């Protein structure tokens, strides 16, 4: 029987939150490295008002590693519906306040985790605000919301190009046994996190097993018509190393002809078209166990 792995999950928003809920079931240590490039909704408004990195995806991942039924967790996810605060999640405001008082995003997020009683570690992919830039088939698009509404994205990057990543994130990648990339919006969440220069360099030097968790369906218009092969091609174009593609083709995404090992698994919930954390945990732990056993017998 293989030991529980140290797991690092990369991405942003709802996709990485599901991966974290899965990893809680089999990992002994969990670190999430989350994109802070969002410029829409509550996160975008706070960025403009307070000059802070995007906080919404960090909030979602914090909640994935705590007891989401607790009163404080439910409050952190509550959104105001009226007045000047309409649309703001309380958790985003709490994180903004912690950042204001600590002056350090990594410390602010960890203090929020402590308040929530959460496990694991949540880290921003970069410590400062970044803008997502996409080279499309037609030119250049800037800003996460604008990129998400593009159907011709080819390559994304973050500005400034020398944005620093937390040393804790780079250390976590170096020490990981298994690294999970996705699921989530391919260009605006997954690649927005992975393309941070220091994160990408750390991935290239990591010896951990790297698994890409594929989306269940193409996201319109961002990845309209994309197959699993197209997702692989996009990751290859960005220089993202990985060993396996893990997916469920039951909801309509097509396989194509990926060159890396594609592992098909039942990953969808029975009632909604989303990843089931329990099923995802079984698949990911099985992949790690197989890889670990091969290393042990080599």
In short:
The chain is 41% helix and 16% strand. With 298 residues, the chain is of the alpha/beta class. Strands 3-2-1-7-8-9-10 form a 7-stranded parallel beta sheet, sandwiched between helices.
Task: List the defining traits of the structure above.
298 residues; alpha/beta; Rossmann fold; seven-stranded parallel beta sheet; three-stranded antiparallel beta sheet; 10 strands; globular
Please tell me about this protein's structure.
This protein has 298 residues and is α/β, with parallel strands linked by helices. The protein has a single domain (6-297), classed as 3-Layer(aba) Sandwich (Rossmann fold). It has 12 helices and 10 strands. It has helices spanning 13-23, 41-50, 56-64, 71-76, 90-102, 105-116, 144-148, 167-175, 186-194, 197-204, 228-237, 277-297; strands at 6-11, 29-34, 121-124, 131-136, 140-142, 153-159, 178-181, 209-213, 244-247, 261-264. The strands form 2 sheets. The protein has a 7-stranded parallel beta sheet, with helices on both faces. Strand 8 (209-213), helix 11 and strand 9 form a beta-alpha-beta unit. The longest helix is centred in the C-terminal third of the chain and has 21 residues, at 277-297. The protein starts with 5 loop residues before the first strand and ends with a helix.
């Amino acid at each position: 029987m293989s030991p529980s792995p140290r797991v690092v999950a990369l991405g942003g928003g709802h996709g990485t939150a599901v991966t974290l809920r899965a990893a809680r079931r089999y990992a002994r240590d969990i670190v999430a490295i989350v994109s802070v490039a969002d410029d829409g909704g509550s996160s975008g408004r706070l960025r403009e008002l307070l000059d802070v990195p995007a906080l919404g995806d960090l909030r979602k991942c914090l909640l994935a590693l705590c007891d989401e039924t607790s009163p404080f967790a439910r409050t952190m996810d509550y959104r105001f519906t009226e007045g000047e605060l309409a649309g703001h999640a309380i958790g985003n405001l709490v994180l903004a306040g912690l950042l204001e008082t600590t002056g350090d995003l990594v410390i602010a997020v960890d203090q929020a985790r402590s308040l929530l009683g959460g496990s694991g570690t949540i880290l921003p992919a970069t410590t400062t605000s970044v803008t997502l830039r996409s080279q499309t088939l037609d030119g250049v698009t800037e800003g996460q919301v604008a990129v998400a509404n593009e159907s011709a994205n080819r390559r994304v990057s973050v500005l400034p190009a020398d944005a620093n990543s937390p040393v804790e994130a780079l250390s976590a990648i170096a020490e990981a046994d298994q690294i999970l990339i996705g699921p989530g919006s391919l260009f605006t969440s997954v690649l927005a996190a992975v393309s941070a220069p220091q994160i990408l360099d750390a991935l290239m030097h990591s010896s951990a097993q790297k698994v890409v968790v594929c989306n269940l369906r193409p996201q319109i218009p961002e990845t309209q018509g994309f197959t699993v092969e197209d997702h692989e091609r996009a990751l290859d174009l960005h220089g993202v190393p990985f060993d396996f593609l893990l997916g469920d083709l039951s909801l309509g995404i097509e396989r194509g002809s990926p060159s890396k090992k594609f592992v098909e698994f039942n990953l969808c919930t029975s009632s909604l078209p989303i990843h089931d954390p329990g099923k995802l945990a079984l698949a990911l732990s099985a992949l790690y166990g197989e890889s670990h056993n091969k290393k042990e017998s080599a």
